[in-house]
Amino acid sequence: MDETQIQQVRRFNRVVTQRVGVLHEHYLGRDRPVGEARLLWEVGERGQDVRQLRERLGLDSGYVSRLLRSLEDDGLVVVEPSARDRRVRTVRLTEAGRAEHALLDARSDELAGSLLEPLNAGQRARLVAAMAEAERLLTAATVTLDAVDPAHPDAEHCLRRYFEELAERFDTGFDPARSLLPDAGELRLPRGLFLVARLHGEPVGCAGLKLPPDAPAEIKRMWVAPSARGLGLGRRFLAELEARAAEQGREVLRLDTNKTLSAAIGLYHSAGFQEVPAFNDEPYAHHWFEKRVARRVEG
Amino acid sequence: MDETQIQQVRRFNRVVTQRVGVLHEHYLGRDRPVGEARLLWEVGERGQDVRQLRERLGLDSGYVSRLLRSLEDDGLVVVEPSARDRRVRTVRLTEAGRAEHALLDARSDELAGSLLEPLNAGQRARLVAAMAEAERLLTAATVTLDAVDPAHPDAEHCLRRYFEELAERFDTGFDPARSLLPDAGELRLPRGLFLVARLHGEPVGCAGLKLPPDAPAEIKRMWVAPSARGLGLGRRFLAELEARAAEQGREVLRLDTNKTLSAAIGLYHSAGFQEVPAFNDEPYAHHWFEKRVARRVEG
DNA sequence: TCCATTCTCTGACCTTAGTCAGACACTGAG
DNA sequence: CTCAGTGTCTGACTAAGGTCAGAGAATGGA
């Protein structure tokens, strides 16, 4: 990795933790502990199960319980058993809690304003644009790719959303029964693998790789959630699958796609795939691509 | 202020405090408390007075003392009376302390690397560019402008540097005695004022305003430290002085300058100043400018 | 020389943040 | 109905981070 890039990132980290980080805690926790304030914020207008709160903030169950008790004593939240499962308890804001939440919201605005305030209009516009770019790319860097079993709930969630989207976009609709679908076993090692992309634990994309013993490796069911598009995730899936195919000693990677998926087709071209004649008779495919696998792929 | 800008800044703050802030603490304080690690870092290769450490980190004197004791017990620093003033104690790293410092340095590199690592080369370049821009503008927004007495040490420091720079840049050198210098009283209210710009407490620029009762307001001795150039500070001084002149009921602002200060001349033009015939006989001036003061000036 | 001031340190004290081991209530499969 | 598992809570504990009021040494100007 480039040394000057590292140095720039470090300068950024220093300035930002000072200017944003410290102020952030200061604004947030002006009259209550930061932990309580974060929890109150996370409960939000719509309420949350205790379990979700614990997970999102990454806190110990005993600790969350105590924080909630303290907020309850201050009359900011009520905690009551969930209707569906009486072990689960759900938290919602009281009127006073909503007011406190609005106060935190206003403070967050205030902090943002204080960052822009000393700048003139041109500088503000440039700062906001740079922040948008940095935010987008940092978010992209936060996405993790993990190999999971295709029966994993996150994998199933992605596949369901994927099929829904195909049904909506294809001129002909989409019926999984008519398509050449690999069975789950074909996307499990050693016959294949299945990747899920997650952002803050939520699944936001998937991609499968078939590794048939007697044919080239094949990419199947690549999908990126609408909320995660524009993060370069498709390209990252391709690179990751290519690296994994290389690890398995494969030299060729191929895939088929539908003509309505124009963004994907553009991606395949720009990632070095060449269009080839049909290598299968998938009824929903209009284009077939192939790529010679690179020995080593950089990040 | 623009609502969509505020929202973008808030999104940025959220992503960055999560991604950078949390990781930062995690990397920094892996095997010692964050407070100690920060202090050790701040001591640095060259050593520091206890007083400076306290000021830079904004910590209580008792607390710093205790942290230093703990670092001393671990053999990482030595604390000894300063030669100049035996009340002051100075801290420097031991050999072990230097090693620990290097470790923190390496971790900081590691953190920076982990932010870039999941991205491809193009994304990395764009992230680093956006970070550089954001860092520069956040730094610019951190600079404060305060009216001070022209005899204040920070004001004198700036003026000394200003004269040194003029002496170096003017073809003819610069002798303050030959120039039309306002005496200090002319840069004190009600006859004038003097602004100092500071970044993290350090003076990085100055600008004076003369408010003679029988003549237009006049900008004098505007200077920006080389380390703080490119932050739009000159433009900010002009806007601030214009606003203050307007507050004092002035309608015209003027100034003179030397031909070698081409960046300043460009700034005056772009800030709406018009070149006018000489209105004084300052021997070091080649250009004279004037501007009608706006009623209200935006940030 | 005296005295107010400056600088650092110590002791006493406090809150926040967090961990861990159980206790208890509830659920769902068999 | 039983029982293993799940979700939450309580009590007991710890470390980190910090505040405050002096004590004591050194300084610098009158």
From TrEMBL, chains A, B:
Is Calcium one of the keywords UniProt gives this record?
no
Q: Name one GO molecular function term.
A: DNA-binding transcription factor activity
Is Acyltransferase set as a keyword in this record?
yes
Q: Which CDD domains match?
A: HTH_ARSR, NAT_SF
What SUPFAM superfamilies does its record include? Acyl-CoA N-acyltransferases (Nat), Winged helix' DNA-binding domain
Q: Which Pfam families match?
A: Acetyltransf_1, MarR_2
Domain N-acetyltransferase, residue spans = 143-294
Where do the HTH marR-type domain residues begin and end? 1-136
Keywords, A to Z? Acyltransferase, Transferase
In terms of InterPro entries, this protein maps to: Acyl_CoA_acyltransferase, ArsR-like_HTH, Bact_Acetyltransf, GNAT_dom, HTH_MarR-typ, WH-like_DNA-bd_sf, WH_DNA-bd_sf
PROSITE patterns attached here?
GNAT, HTH_MARR_2
* UniProt cross-references to PANTHER family, sorted A to Z: AMINOALKYLPHOSPHONATE N-ACETYLTRANSFERASE-RELATED (PTHR43877:SF2), AMINOALKYLPHOSPHONATE N-ACETYLTRANSFERASE-RELATED-RELATED (PTHR43877)
Instruction: State what protein this is by name.
Output: Bifunctional helix-turn-helix transcriptional regulator/GNAT family N-acetyltransferase
